[in-house]
User: What shape does this take?
Amino acid sequence: MNPRDAVTKTLARLKLSRPGVNSHDLITNVAATLGLRRDDLVRIVRVMVATVVTVVGIVMITSVPGWGATHALLGIHQAPEAKTSSAPMTVDQARKILTRTFTAAYLGETNSGAAAKANLRKAYTRDGLRAVSGRVRLASVQPAALASPLLAPHPTLLAVSRGFGFPRFIIAQTSASEGSLPILHLLVSPDAATPYRIYMSVEMVPPATVSPFDQLSSGSPLVSNDTGPLVANGTGLAVAPAELMKRYAAQMVFPAKSTSKPPFGADPFASQVRAGAAAVADAVSSQATFTQTHRVLPNSVYAVRQASGDALVFGVIERKDNFTVKADQNVNTAANKAFVLLTGSKVITKAADITTLEFVVFAVPRSTGKATLVAAREQIVAGSGS
Amino acid sequence: MPASTRRALGAVLAALGVVFVVVGAWTVVRLGPSGEAQFAATSRAPGVIVVPADVLNAVDTPVRVTAARRDGGALVLAVGASADARAILTHSAVSTVSAVHYPSGGLDLQAWGAGALTNISGADVWRLAARGAGSATLLVDQARAPETLVVTSGDSSALKDVTVTLTWADHAWFFEALAMATLGAVLAAFAFNDLWQGRVGDVPAKVTGRRSSEARV
Assistant: This one.
């Protein structure tokens, strides 16, 4: 059976035609049945088809998402992907954060009472808060020059973190007054809900300088290390940040131990600490035994990659000065006003210890060479004695 | 070109022209000379309202977001990176704008989560923010897309009966729609004219056929 026969038989079954009638006759018959002329019927069918096609076209073009005319007309598209190679904030945002934080820090350090403490908590975090609390507590006995590193009105924004991971950081620099040492500030935010706060403010060691970071719009990546945030791959530095901090803390121990091939150059801060320990030990040698330990605080090391490939490494070391008073002896501590203020004791007969935080910043070369101390600061935070 | 093919092509072009005229004219009327498209919805579920990047950054023009609450209480609108907004609102009751309906001007709101609300005002992840009593408006540019916008009370108290309105405005849209309608009108006019001319051209042949039929009688 050919197709023509099949059509004819089907029409016959539907009683629209009989065998032997072609399509031309069929249209004529249908027109006759409807009481129309054949040409009129053809025109009506054409108009109906055109109308249906037009309506369907309009509906589809206006309603189908993605390729509809309105989407094309209005430029509707998918939201772009997040860029992992950009800073998570604008420069304006970073500057506002600096202004807010430094203002709170200033108010906290120059006032007293509950409001001042609230401002300090708003401005500082973790070891930074410990240090500033110690500084405020000892303000009456510490030199005025060291009272606050935050008296600069216009901090310079040096770097912000890259990408949307946490922790995030901001590095800024201030100069308290003409001729004074610049101060490096590290502000950190551990998660999305927690605002940036000052983790450390450290005076730079002359003649150190800070190499440029990547552009603020793209941010600077953190370098991975064992005792700080693991955010980016940190290969390619002359010394791993964690190892550097560990070796630096170890070489300052008293009684001194020899260190072989230190990955850092000599610096005035370590020399000063060692000389101070030797002087104290000598001063109390007949009444007490003096020891000093240095320990890198957990999760305290932040290493930020610079544009040259070098890294700026921030770390916090906790120093413990221990005095063990010899039998039948006592030590007069009246001259150490900080110790008296912290413990209330002017004489110790058994033992005493003083806790000091040492904030240090190193410049670490990317391949070979030694790390250089860029900034350092110490702050007594606690003491006890009996 | 055969007459039947030419006629079919003319019909298709005419239909296309009509579609352009209808869609273009209708868009011109909907947008108006300011080229403004507005969408709104009222959230009844307690919680914060979130406008995700899929909606906020779907068009390359700034979007004006307005929120209004019936009780006249405080409102905070904040926009920041989507990942940060998600992290902050993980444990909060949220109504998310899941779809935009054009031309009806409606927004679909999808409620999820049941936790206490997070006070977002302490976080530093918000690029832009606006506060207001009873209502607040924030104009969000597309410079740092993708971003998410959050509407909250400014503290941990839940929002309820808040109407959110999203407005996109671009003068170019109006003129594009006008151009579309004009193009469609021109296309349809030419196509219909061609069809008409073809029909008129067929008439003498039919008349001739009738005459020959009469001659046989």
Observations:
- The beta strands of chain B are 36-43, 48-51, 63-69, 74-81, 94-101, 106-112, 126-133, 135-140, 147-152, 162-169.
- The radius of gyration of chain B is 28 Å.
- Confidence is low (pLDDT under 50) at residues 205-217 of chain B.
